Structures are given as C-alpha cells and as structure tokens.
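Lab notebook, bench 4. Still working through the backlog of constructs that have no structural model yet. Next entry is a single chain of 173 residues. Request: give me the structure tokens for it.
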Amino acid sequence: MSYKANSTTYGGKTKSQIASLTGMSQGDSVYNTDINRIEYYTGSIWANEDLVVCVIDSGGGTFSEGQCCHWVNDGTYQKAVALSQEVNSGEFAGIVYRGGTGAGTEIVVAWKGIYPVKFEGATTANFGVSLSSTTNGDNLSEGSVSVGHFGIVLETIGAAGNAKVLIGGIETF
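Model written out:
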C-alpha cells in the first residue's frame, strides 16, 4: 500500500501562517499543523469539523483564544455570548480558537478535539476541566476527572497560560 498525503490548496501551515494567507476562495483548504486538522475556508474564516463559526452577539466584547464562551442559535446565526451572560439549559459552551472583537464579528469556537484552553494559573496533565463560576469566561477549574468535566488536560503548565485540552463537548444543563 502506498501513502499519499492529503491534497489541500495551501499545504501544511501553522495557525499563524494560515492567518496571513490572502486571496482565498470559499472551499479552499489547508492542513493546520498546530491542531493536525484540515481546515476549509468558508468565504470569510477558516473552520473544520471540530469548530462552530459564531457571530459575536450585540453585547459585543472581545473573545480571545482559549477563552470559554457559549453560543445560541437565533434562527439565522450561531451567536457567541460571554459566559458572564446567562447560560440556559441545552445551550452549548466551547473554547474560542479564532477570536475577534465587536458585535457582528465572526469567531470560531471549538466544541470537541484538542485545542488550547486558557488557565488563570498552573494546571496538571491528566486532570479534568470544568467551567468555574466566573464573570469573564477565562477561569476554568481542574481536578480529578469526574462528572461535570468537559475535557482532560494533556500538558502541565507551571503558570497562567494556554494548555492543550482534549475537549469532549460542553452542553449546559
């Protein structure tokens, strides 16, 4: 059996290199070497099967990589909403992968897969991750894996920052 690499429009690139691409057309593809996923250009933003494209709701704000947010479907768009706003039963939360600022701006939110998650302090590999009750969506708590955790930390970090987490879907109850 022979091996043939996946064919993409732009080959393999890091997230930073993808962000600097110009002249893309809807349907173009690139292999994101940071997350080991093929991404497709929607006509305005890069996404893949682990990600949900959302529009920042009318409340505006800034959504940064690794930050938690939740989204609601208003019938037209998936609207990203800060965790500081009310989260209703049956809505989904996720981790921002491509952020943005201001109402109407498209962002990309991971709801499954391996993605960087922002922690306010040190965290330890193999611990579970859950949402904590914070006002800005930046704080996540971690501890021994148990009910209520949405992911598992894959790397230890000694201070605040982003750590890779295996995200398993975040539905609020």
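Notes after review: The radius of gyration is 16 Å. Residues 121 and 160 are 4 Å apart (CA to CA). Flag for follow-up if needed.
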